[in-house]
Design a protein that fits this description.
Blueprint: H1 2-24, E1 40-47, H2 50-66, E2 70-77, H3 82-91, E3 98-100, H4 106-111, E4 134-137, E5 140-145, E6 149-156, H5 157-163, H6 178-188, E7 190-191, E8 207-213, H7 218-227, H8 245-259, H9 274-277, E9 284-290, H10 293-303, E10 308-311, E11 321-324, E12 327-330, H11 337-347, H12 354-358, H13 368-371, H14 373-380, H15 388-401, E13 403-405, H16 414-424, H17 426-429, H18 435-440, H19 443-450
Parallel strand pairs: 1-2, 1-3, 8-9, 11-13
Antiparallel strand pairs: 3-12, 4-5, 5-12, 6-9, 6-10, 6-11, 7-8
């Protein structure tokens, strides 16, 4: 899980750097705000190298030059010491006015009373962020994600065509059942002799192409528990339900894709590079993962002459996906919370992030981009995406109508919980333990991690 956290941190830094450079290109020759005059001065904390902080400051300079009410200064803190530094600043009552945070750290700060309620940040606005992007603590909104990401199904169209198999459904209403998903994966799994996993003569010891790889990073596994009628926690996050029969069954079904169905490679659930290890490597026909992969890896793969498609996830009992997205927060110790909210609202505007959205790395956060067809076309109707109708159905409509917030939006201590759960499930992927044995044997420790006593 340390590798996962590092990979997610690097992705966040990459996104911030790309955003900053894209805006910097449009800011040359501007003064950067000059004397603050009567402006309210606020500080925005950010992790990154000095060069990255310079670029983010250039974005703030653009904001400073476009209005005279608020002046923003960027405070750069190295990402390896970011949380420790913020904790020390909180103890000294010296937190910045606002800043970036990791998803899993938001509610810990909120429950310590360190985050402001920002529910009014979009009051009077024509469009608000999707509800699934709001971090909630005791019913209060304490952060919104700066971008939206959901889990979907990717597939290699050439492999489907060669097997004569119909493409996966793009509409949640017609999503494959889990059994249909497995049977399709068997038709796409080939041994060295060209036999499919549906053939009695299939050689499961010598597979050259797998039908599927379901990403088993711990946080992504939550979607299958929810789809099967279970979950890592109950609906309001007040209790751990990881040992519920529905949750255990869902995790075992994911493991059995490799252990029993012979349609998936062994994956330890430790690295955040599933698309690269499957679709792009040319060894797997389908994989599940986040929408950021369109921009971070699949566009380059497509430019090499390959063709991929997007579809909704299969269902166990109900259609569902989960979302995530790194948040910006307003710290409660500052006296300029209104000014900080104004800055963050501007900083999160789609137009200020357009290069990231256009390239497929980020998705918009405002609801109007999911409901207004003109704005949806502006977002999706470009060569970086699969065909408009396909992407709109499998991603845009899916994100709007079938998303449940990932648990760190409403549950504290998810980082410790997920780290422990990832370790517990290691023996499940190899078949040394069943999901029931692994989870029930460690449920007390998992509940302790949930309570902050890991």
């Amino acid at each position: 899980m340390k590798k996962l956290k590092k990979a997610r941190m690097l992705l966040a830094l990459t996104l911030c750097a790309i955003l900053s450079m894209s805006l910097l290109a449009g800011c040359s020759g501007q003064s950067g705000g000059g004397d603050s005059g009567g402006a309210v001065e606020i500080t925005y904390s950010f992790w990154g190298t000095p060069e990255e902080a310079e670029s983010v400051q250039a974005v703030a300079d653009r904001y400073n030059s476009e209005q005279s009410e608020v002046k923003v200064t960027v405070e750069n803190i190295p990402h390896d010491t970011y949380v420790d530094k913020l904790n020390a600043m909180a103890t000294a009552n010296e937190l910045p006015d606002c800043g970036i945070m990791s998803e899993a750290g938001v509610l810990q700060f909120a429950e310590q009373g360190l985050l402001a309620d920002i529910a009014d940040m979009y009051e009077g606005a024509e469009s608000k962020p999707l509800d699934s992007l709001a971090f909630k603590s005791d019913g209060n909104t304490v952060a919104y994600s700066a971008a939206n990401e959901i889990l979907i199904l990717y597939y290699n169209k050439k492999m489907f065509d060669e097997a004569g198999v119909e493409y996966p459904p793009t509409a949640a209403e017609s999503a494959w059942t889990w059994d249909q998903f497995v049977e399709t994966a068997k038709k796409l799994t080939l041994d060295v002799n060209g036999k499919t996993a549906s053939d009695p003569a299939f050689d499961s010891k010598n597979i050259k192409q797998y039908g599927v790889m379901v990403e088993n990073l711990t946080w992504q596994l939550e979607v299958w528990a929810l789809s099967n009628g279970g979950g890592f926690y109950n609906e309001d996050g007040s209790a751990v339900t990881i040992d519920a029969p529905e949750t255990i069954e869902a995790i075992q079904k994911v493991a059995d894709l490799h252990l029993k169905d012979n349609v998936a490679p062994l994956s330890a659930g430790l690295t955040d590079d599933g698309v690269q290890r499957s679709i792009i490597a040319g060894t797997v026909a389908m994989t599940t993962n986040g929408t950021w992969n369109v921009g971070t890896s699949l566009n380059a793969w497509k430019d090499e002459g390959n063709e991929y498609g997007v579809a909704v996830l299969p269902i166990m009992k109900k259609a569902v996906t989960i979302n995530t997205g790194g948040p910006n927060v307003v710290f409660s110790q500052g006296e300029n919370q209104d000014a900080a909210m104004k800055w963050l609202k501007w900083y999160s505007q789609e137009d200020n992030n357009w290069d990231l959205i256009k390239d497929g790395i980020w998705m918009p956060i405002l609801e109007e981009y999911y409901t207004d067809e003109t704005l949806t076309h502006k977002w999706v109707d470009n060569p970086n995406f699969p065909p408009y109708d396909e992407y709109k159905s499998a991603v845009v409509d899916y994100a709007r109508d079938y998303t449940i917030s990932t648990s760190w939006y409403y549950v504290n201590n998810t980082n410790d919980f997920n780290t422990l759960l990832g370790s517990v499930l290691g023996e499940v992927w190899t078949g040394d333990k069943t999901a029931e044995e692994a989870i029930t044997g460690n449920v007390d420790a998992l509940k302790a991690a949930y309570e902050g006593n890991a």
